[in-house]
């Protein structure tokens, strides 16, 4: 087995995606062109900003059999992806990849992983010293008539608000998202609030999924989430994933909007408690 860094190239981004397909038992046709393009961009983004945290495992024939994508943002290390082809499991591929990715964490005090509900993944993350916090997911069709109107302004944001968003990040998770904000703005719209009650932001993608939310107070977080859900067209779906028990405010907003609650994996943390009010991004933590 050969371990090498993921290059910032379309070929390597596609190699990582092929391992993801194999690991999840998905067919190539199940991915729409926009989803594939978004995955390629995010893989290349991380390979460009964090080459020391992005690794590809290849077998003797040069076929990709595993991949890890990790980033380091100031005092926080995050693992965005760790996948192994089922045909290569049980051979130490995942352990070797995680070891390389975690070497990129040197100098950081905190760690974060959005883990799936897969028992093997949970075992690997726990063995690496992470505390596993169960998460929930809200999904369904928004009923705007059931939602209370936001208690203040939440405006459409953009690049001009990146400094504010980085400041909120540092307060909540000990590290700004930095270059990740520019990448997120390519794929999502962002709603921002900033007044005497606090500051915060919420990224919402085209499918109605909350990609990332951070706020300095629950009041602002509730306003942002309600504004994001109310911005969906009539009858459109929405989802709010990766909610720890500390995000009860989000559960209340989602249930009031008519969304259904279900279990959704783990938030794996090291050196920190679950940040709140906070909904992490699977790719950018």
UniProtKB/TrEMBL annotation:
What UniProt keywords are attached to this protein's entry?
Answer: Transferase
Q: Which residues form the N-acetyltransferase domain?
A: 1-150
Q: Which InterPro entries match?
A: Acyl_CoA_acyltransferase, GNAT_dom
**A Gene Ontology molecular function term of the record:** acyltransferase activity, transferring groups other than amino-acyl groups
The protein in question is named GNAT family N-acetyltransferase
């Amino acid at each position: 087995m050969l371990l090498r860094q993921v290059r910032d190239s379309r070929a390597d981004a596609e190699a990582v995606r092929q391992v993801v397909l194999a690991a999840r038992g998905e067919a190539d046709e199940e991915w729409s062109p926009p989803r594939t393009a978004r995955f390629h961009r995010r893989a290349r983004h991380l390979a460009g900003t964090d080459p020391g945290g992005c690794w590809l495992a290849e077998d003797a024939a040069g076929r990709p059999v595993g991949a890890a994508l990790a980033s380091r943002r100031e005092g926080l290390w995050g693992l965005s992806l760790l996948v192994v082809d089922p045909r290569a499991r049980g051979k130490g591929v995942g352990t070797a990849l995680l070891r390389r990715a975690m070497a990129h964490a040197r100098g950081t005090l905190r760690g974060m992983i959005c883990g799936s509900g897969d028992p093997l993944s949970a075992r690997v993350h726990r063995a690496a010293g992470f505390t596993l916090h169960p998460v929930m997911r809200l999904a369904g069709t928004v009923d705007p008539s059931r939602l209370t109107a936001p208690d203040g302004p939440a405006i459409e944001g953009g690049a001009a608000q990146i400094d504010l968003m980085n400041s909120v990040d540092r307060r909540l998770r000990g590290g700004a998202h930095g270059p990740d904000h520019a990448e997120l703005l390519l794929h999502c719209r962002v709603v921002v609030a900033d007044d005497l009650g606090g500051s915060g932001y919420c990224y919402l993608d085209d499918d109605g999924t909350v990609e990332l939310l951070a706020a300095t107070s629950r009041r602002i977080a509730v306003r942002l989430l309600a504004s994001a859900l109310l911005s969906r067209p009539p009858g459109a779906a929405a989802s709010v994933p990766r909610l720890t028990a500390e995000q009860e405010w989000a559960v209340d907003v989602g249930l009031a909007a008519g969304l259904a609650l279900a279990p959704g994996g783990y938030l794996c943390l090291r050196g920190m408690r679950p940040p709140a009010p906070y909904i992490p991004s699977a790719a950018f933590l």
